[in-house]
């Protein structure tokens, strides 16, 4: 009897069609597909704006579905760009909808920030996810600066150092679940 694949819910922090972040999530998905089933969430722009008044008894249906995807996954992978020295508003909005829940508490999580600089967004993402009690460490996060010059239009990593860093990240991410 084949063993069940580990479910990963991957969140693309960019709303740009075929973004570098989406390409990286596809790259990671391809490299872990033997043991992991990865669902890439591409609907950040469809989530309603966070409003604590709407997060009472029954939140909006799209939020319930989003939270359920996180809760049902064995782990979460977030890949995001940096916009104006910060997290993209749509990603921050999605994460704000999770503050009143425990969907991230103890959830094995990996982070990749891939942008021109990315330092500020990466720092902010780690702070938000720490607040949400996601489970991660230094080995399950990666900052890729200057991403546009390191990946081609088809999603192939063209920079050898970036390829090595991603390989290391993938191994560390996998090991969280296989140890």
UniProtKB/TrEMBL annotation:
Domain NADPH-dependent FMN reductase-like: 6-136
GO molecular function, one term: FMN binding
InterPro entries, A to Z: Flavoprotein-like_sf (IPR029039), FMN_Rdtase-like_dom (IPR005025), NAD(P)H-dep_reductase (IPR050712)
Assigned GO CC terms: cytosol
Name of protein: FMN reductase
Species: Flavobacterium resistens
